[in-house]
Structures are given as structure tokens and as C-alpha cells.
TrEMBL record, chain A:
Residues 97-193 form the LUD domain. Pfam families: LUD_dom (PF02589). InterPro entries: FTHF_cligase-like_sf (IPR024185), LUD_dom (IPR003741), NagB/RpiA_transferase-like (IPR037171). This is L-lactate dehydrogenase complex protein LldG.
From TrEMBL, chain B:
It comes from the Bacteria. InterPro entries: 4Fe4S_Fe-S-bd, 4Fe4S_Fe_S_CS, FTHF_cligase-like_sf, Helical_ferredxn, LUD_dom, LutB/LldF, NagB/RpiA_transferase-like. PROSITE patterns: 4FE4S_FER_1, 4FE4S_FER_2. GO terms for molecular function: 4 iron, 4 sulfur cluster binding; metal ion binding. GO terms for biological process: lactate metabolic process. Residues 297-326 form the 4Fe-4S ferredoxin-type domain. This is L-lactate dehydrogenase complex protein LldF. Gene3D superfamilies: Alpha-helical ferredoxin, NagB/RpiA/CoA transferase-like.
Amino acid sequence: MSSRDSILKAVKENQPEKAGLPDISVFKTSTQGSLSKFAAALNAVGGKIAYVSDYGEILHMIKAQYGDHAKVISPMKELAMLCTENFDLSTPVHSLHDVDVAILKGQFGVAENGAVWITDKEMVNRALPFITQHLVAIIDWEMIVPTMHDSYELISRTRYGFGTFIAGPSKTADIEQSLVIGAHGPRSMTVYVMG
Amino acid sequence: MEQTTKDHSALAQQFNRDEDRVDWHDETLWWIREKRDKAAHQLPEWESLREAASQIKNNTLSNLHDYLLQFEQNAIANGLQVHWAADAAEHNQIVHRIINEANVVRIVKSKSMLTEECGLNEYLAKRGIEVIDSDLGERIVQLAAEPPSHIVLPCIHKKKEEIGELFHQHLGIEANISDPQFLTETARQHLREIFLTRKLALTGVNFAIAETGEFVVCTNEGNADMGAHLAEVHIASMGIEKIIPERAHLGVFLRLLTRSATGQPITTYSSHFKRPREGKKIHIIIVDNGRTVQLGRKDFRNSLKCIRCAACMNTCPVYRRSGGHSYHTAVAGPIGSILAPNLDMKKYADLPFASTLCGSCSNVCPVKIDIHEQLYKWRQVLVKNGYTPTAKKAGMQLMTWTLSSPGRYHMAGKAGRWVLKNAPFAVNNKLNPWYRQRDMPEAPELSFSEWYKQNKKN
């Protein structure tokens, strides 16, 4: 018998009597998430927030913050004029090693923890939000959900090959529990809330 | 890693030699426990979430056969390659085979306690495969040639000066640097080079979803994603108990996991791997290694509900003062002490006794595992099967003999008081394990029953 079959057989023989699933719909809120809660949660996990009314404002702010020499990459056509290099599906992943700023559209933010949901559709290259030195995510102001339960309600209506919640810059406290921002991924995360 | 024959109390004694370090360890883990409390108290629905998580896991275990099949079917439909491993040896062989097929000799790995349990790094090292652990804490203990001492904070037993020394020896920084910021930056640069040059990455799995065939990996550092997305081949290793029925259930588990672990509302990255990107491969290895046996043990199957948050370790008065290495198993602390005897009763017979049974572990467990009750039940199983040390057994028998007769009990009390008063050196010495970290009490003149008899007359 293959290991697969012997494991499945052993599981079937040993699993306890059937227990039902709880009703988790009670945790859903169906209200819109609070932007101020999202901002507070994002700050608490080391992220920054900025409010903008259009892409022009973003162009201006990115230039002001990162200067003219930064390598900026974004798959968003609205920000094409900011990009210092071409970037699409055919861009080899290792050429991203020196990206300073990556700007990505996020599908929505989560008020309870400051996370932004981004999928491979927005990333184009899955390595981009991790390998970049600084990450900028743009979300629409009305796309804030209160909790993770509401998040999965939205996610259930979409398709993706890879998706991730990103809550702030990469961090570690492995050395004597001292929090250090910028472990392996971005050293900063800024969320632009548009609208 | 070093094979040990010492038991928990002998290893704890080693750890206890450095009193300042023990105090630091104790206080730091308690601080993390307090952060967990703060995070939990911010959610009025916290207890309902724990109950829901517990019920989802109960349902999972009760229907695991079908969920595993469903997961396999959906994962294959998504383009993942699914492998099954009956035990550690088979898991390691499968990993080795995939590495050979990819034609590489160097791989990068993110945190996976399962690969620790399987001894994967040693297995691959013997076959000429270099494995670099990429979680900062794991990289540090790897450089020190030690196993992790905590499942979430692998090098919590190390001081920053020691880490500086390790980086001085292995990563070429100047001597006597202990600034965490500088040391982390050093590791960042070192590991970036690794991520960019390794074609195969191995990660663990936090949750595998039967309904969709995807799996979720959670990190704060981003190391799992850096490894997986820069490599051609991604291997993800999971125990059969990592399954959850539906994706919506992640709403419950991701809310509980990191709040319980470190007091953060969520990890920085909660990555959902569903399909491999074009031209790349994802292999998932589903491992039993004793889990189906545990599933069949009515009293202990609940231990398979664990989501590896380590809250039970952070709160445990014994763990905090004895250190993770004293448990001599991949998963230390209270939960490890009920998982390990399932794998080897003889080798881990000491662990269920490394507890005060205070119940704090069960109180903080996000999936409501009755940890302290299982520790108590393991003790009975181990004694019945003859796995308890002779000295403990003889002591217990002597105690039973004494306590079962009032006459013998009074005699023993008298003798004890006489010794403490007239010959304290007979107990205040190294032969008495109780004396090692404590002063013996002053003996009262009378026992309670003698005192009662006298005072009743008055």
C-alpha cells in the first residue's frame, strides 16, 4: 500500500466521531470599516498612512520622498511616468534586487490590523512587494473592511494564484526581543488612501 | 544537532546555573504573555473566537480523511504537486529527491518545526546538500549549531553579545558588536545574497485549506516569501493536522494566531499560495510521522488542534525558568510535552512531569486544548507502562506506604521535624534535590494534630 493510502486508512480508522462546524457568520459585521481605526492599526504595526485625492498627488509625493535617483517600479499604468524601468510579466525576477520603491494597488485594507490584501494580479511579479526596499500600497478610501471575517467575504468573490495580507514593513524581534524594522523585506510601508 | 540522553530536570539544572539569564528569560517571556493579554482583551469576541476555533479543529479532526482528500484534489487541480510521507525518513527522502530533480545542492529554508521534527537539515547535510535557515532567529541558532529553543522565538535563550560573537565568527563583522539593529542589518545583507542565489526554497505551512487547495504561510520577516518567490521550486512541508475545512475559517485563525503568539494583531505577511506562477513548481508534502497514532489516542488527540502560537510556552512557569532546550524535542513547552511522548514514550517520559499542572497553558490556548489535563493523563500512561525513573517510582511507593497508615504518617512527620531541627545537614545538602534552589523550612515544634490535641484540652 502506498504511504498515501496507508495514511488515509489510518486517519479513517482513528478519527473521532463526526463533530459539526460552528456558525462563524456571527463574526461578520457587514458595515464599512473605520478609516481612523485602519490608520491607527497600521501605525501600530510600523506602517505609515497618507491621504491623497488623485494620482497627480501621489506622483508628487513619491518624487518628494524618494528623490530622482531611486529605482521606482509600478505595474499601475496611472503611475507609468514615475517608473524608472520597464516592468511587466517578462521582467526577470532577479533584476528586481535593487528596486528602491514598489508601488502597488491594494484591493482593500483591514481596520482591525492595518493589513492590505494584494494579489498576484496587482503585483504582476510575486517577489516585488517583498524584495523592494520600500513598499507603497494604494487603496480606495471606501475599501476598508472592519475585520478578517469581512476580508474573506470579499476574497471569496475573487480569483488569484497568490495573495497576501501585508501589515506594515518587514520586522523582527529575534534578537533579545528588540523590535527592528526591515528584516528581509521592505524597510517601510506607506499606504496611500485615495478618495 | 546534539543528541541528548539527559532528562528535563538535568537540562533545566544546566540552564539554571546562570541566574541572571534565567531571570531575563523568565521576565521576557512573561512580557510577551502580557502583550498577548492586551491584544486579546481588545476583542470583546475573543472567547467566542477561541470556542469557534476549537470547534472548527474538532470538526477537522473528525472529518480529516475527507478533508485531506479534498485538499489533495483541489491542490492538484491548482497545479501543485502533492506527496505523502508516512514518517520523517520518507519526508526527508522526498525532499532529497525533489532537490536532486531540480539539480541543485544549496537550498534556503524558512521556519518549519516539522523539518526540525524530521531532522531534515542533518539528513541533507550528510548527503552534501547545504541548507540555510532564513528566519533570523533560526539562522542564529544554526550558526551556533543548536536547535531552536522556542517555536516562535528560536533564539530567545541567546544574549545579543553572543549573537554579535557568532556574527563576528561567521559573517565577518567586527568583534564586540551587540546592537540589534546592526546585527539584523548584517543578517539582512547576508541572507539577501542567499535568497538571490538559491533556486529551491522550502517553507512550512500554517494552514492548508481543503475547500480551495491553497496553503497559508505566516511570517513577520518576509523570509518565506523572499525564498519562495525568488526560487524556481518551492517545497512546502505540512503535518496532516494543518488542514482547515474552508477559507473563511482563516478569518478565525488569523485573528487568533499572532495575538496569541506575540500580541500583534496579525503577522506582517499572511501569504496564500494557490497556484504556482508560470513555469515554476510548488510541491506540498503531507506528513504523518505519528500523527495518525495520536489521532487514535482518545485522551491525546486534541493536541493535534495546535496552531503553534507558543502562548502555552510563554505563560508556563516551568518553561520560562528551564528554557526550551531542556525539553530536548523540536516543539518545547507544554504542548511539546504532550506531542513528544506519542513519538517515543521512553525517550520523552520525563516531559509530562516538567509541569506544575497549574493550567495556565490551557487558559491561553487559542484552540482550547486541555493541555494540563493531557499532561496529567500522560503521567498515568507512562507510569502504567513502566517508563518512570526508578527513583521517582521508589519515592512514590514509599509515599504511598507512608500516607496509607496514620501511624506511619505521624512517625514520618516526627522524624522529619527532628531531622530539620537537630540534624539539618542531613537534608541541607546536594543529595536533596529540593534543597538545590531553596532553603529548607524551619521545623515547627508540633504537628497540627499534636497542636490541636493540646489546644482542645484548654
